[in-house]
Write a structure and sequence with these properties.
With about 90 residues, this protein is mainly alpha-helical. The protein has one domain. The protein is built from 3 helices and 2 strands; from the N terminus they run H-H-E-E-H. A hairpin with a 3-residue loop joins strand 1 and strand 2. Helix 1 crosses helix 2. The protein is elongated and about 60 Å long.
Protein backbone atom coordinates (compact mmCIF):
# COMPACT_ATOMS: atom_id res chain seq x y z
CA UNK A 1 0.00 0.00 0.00
CA UNK A 2 1.43 3.33 -1.05
CA UNK A 3 1.28 6.53 0.93
CA UNK A 4 -1.37 8.93 -0.48
CA UNK A 5 1.28 11.63 -0.90
CA UNK A 6 3.41 9.26 -2.96
CA UNK A 7 0.41 8.37 -5.12
CA UNK A 8 -0.23 12.07 -5.75
CA UNK A 9 3.41 12.62 -6.73
CA UNK A 10 3.36 9.60 -9.03
CA UNK A 11 0.17 10.82 -10.71
CA UNK A 12 1.59 14.33 -11.09
CA UNK A 13 4.88 13.02 -12.48
CA UNK A 14 3.09 10.76 -14.93
CA UNK A 15 0.92 13.64 -16.10
CA UNK A 16 3.85 16.09 -16.37
CA UNK A 17 6.02 13.65 -18.32
CA UNK A 18 3.19 12.19 -20.41
CA UNK A 19 3.79 8.67 -19.10
CA UNK A 20 1.57 5.85 -17.90
CA UNK A 21 1.02 5.79 -14.15
CA UNK A 22 2.11 2.14 -14.07
CA UNK A 23 5.46 3.03 -15.68
CA UNK A 24 6.14 5.68 -13.05
CA UNK A 25 5.12 3.27 -10.28
CA UNK A 26 7.51 0.63 -11.66
CA UNK A 27 10.33 3.20 -11.70
CA UNK A 28 9.49 4.18 -8.12
CA UNK A 29 9.47 0.55 -6.93
CA UNK A 30 12.61 -0.54 -8.83
CA UNK A 31 15.20 0.29 -6.11
CA UNK A 32 13.19 -1.55 -3.47
CA UNK A 33 12.80 -4.60 -5.70
CA UNK A 34 16.55 -4.51 -6.42
CA UNK A 35 17.32 -4.49 -2.71
CA UNK A 36 14.92 -7.39 -2.19
CA UNK A 37 16.70 -9.40 -4.89
CA UNK A 38 20.14 -8.56 -3.45
CA UNK A 39 19.14 -9.55 0.07
CA UNK A 40 17.47 -12.75 -1.12
CA UNK A 41 20.36 -14.00 -3.27
CA UNK A 42 23.52 -12.30 -1.93
CA UNK A 43 22.90 -12.56 1.79
CA UNK A 44 24.84 -15.31 3.57
CA UNK A 45 23.68 -15.71 7.15
CA UNK A 46 26.23 -18.36 8.05
CA UNK A 47 29.15 -16.12 7.05
CA UNK A 48 27.34 -13.03 8.39
CA UNK A 49 27.42 -11.27 5.02
CA UNK A 50 24.67 -8.71 4.56
CA UNK A 51 25.39 -6.55 1.51
CA UNK A 52 24.69 -2.83 1.40
CA UNK A 53 23.21 -0.91 -1.48
CA UNK A 54 23.69 2.81 -2.07
CA UNK A 55 21.79 4.69 -4.74
CA UNK A 56 23.17 8.26 -4.76
CA UNK A 57 20.70 11.01 -3.90
CA UNK A 58 18.04 8.42 -3.15
CA UNK A 59 18.72 5.87 -0.45
CA UNK A 60 21.10 3.66 1.45
CA UNK A 61 20.21 0.11 2.47
CA UNK A 62 22.54 -1.00 5.22
CA UNK A 63 22.45 -3.60 7.97
CA UNK A 64 24.20 -2.25 11.11
CA UNK A 65 26.03 -4.65 13.45
CA UNK A 66 23.31 -4.56 16.13
CA UNK A 67 20.72 -5.57 13.55
CA UNK A 68 22.98 -8.33 12.19
CA UNK A 69 23.19 -9.79 15.69
CA UNK A 70 19.40 -9.63 16.08
CA UNK A 71 18.80 -11.24 12.68
CA UNK A 72 21.33 -14.01 13.33
CA UNK A 73 19.80 -14.76 16.73
CA UNK A 74 16.34 -14.99 15.15
CA UNK A 75 17.65 -17.13 12.26
CA UNK A 76 19.40 -19.56 14.63
CA UNK A 77 16.27 -19.83 16.76
CA UNK A 78 14.19 -20.65 13.67
CA UNK A 79 16.78 -23.20 12.51
CA UNK A 80 16.69 -25.02 15.86
CA UNK A 81 12.90 -25.12 15.73
CA UNK A 82 12.99 -26.56 12.20
CA UNK A 83 15.53 -29.23 13.11
CA UNK A 84 13.64 -30.35 16.24
CA UNK A 85 10.25 -30.65 14.55
CA UNK A 86 9.21 -34.24 13.98
CA UNK A 87 7.66 -35.24 10.66
CA UNK A 88 4.01 -36.20 10.81
CA UNK A 89 3.12 -39.67 9.53
CA UNK A 90 0.15 -39.84 7.22
CA UNK A 91 -1.97 -42.73 8.41
Amino acid sequence: MMNPEVKKLINKTAKDLNLNISDVERAYNAPFELQSIIMRHRCDREKQIFPSLRIPYFLLFYCPPWNKARLLKKWKKNETIRTTEQPVDNI
